[in-house]
Design a protein that fits this description.
- The protein is elongated, with a radius of gyration of 14 Å.
- The chain is mainly β and 108 residues long.
- 0% of the residues lie in helices and 49% in strands.
- The mean pLDDT is 95.
- It has a five-stranded antiparallel sheet, with no helix packed on it. The protein has a five-stranded antiparallel sheet with strand order 9-8-7-6-10, with no helix packed on it.
- The two termini are 28 Å apart.
- It has two domains: 45 residues, SH3 type barrels, CATH 2.30.30; 45 residues, SH3 type barrels (Roll).
Length: 108
Amino acid sequence: MVSDYTPGDWVLGQWQNGRWWFPGVVHSIGEDGSVAIQYDDGTTEIRPANQVKRYDWQVGSRIDAIWSGDGQWYAAEIVEADPDGARLKVRFDDGIEEETVTGRCRSE
């Protein structure tokens, strides 16, 4: 089966078939088209191709991020992104801004 992805592609994977999409890099492609992902937070998982999409976060994207103040997830918007996209500045819905990394973020 031909895949839309190649090792090294930055993608969003639907973690454990749940509602959340997490960023990661394609590690390998299975013969059935499944995608092995090394997530930016260090975890790994194999997802069917229909639960993987191209990384599309940019300034203005709505995401959830872990706030350093208490380690919990909160709704936020990306307000700045490094050219490589791995470091972000987010504004939480309560107005607090914080720098973070993609491994501490997710989207629906």
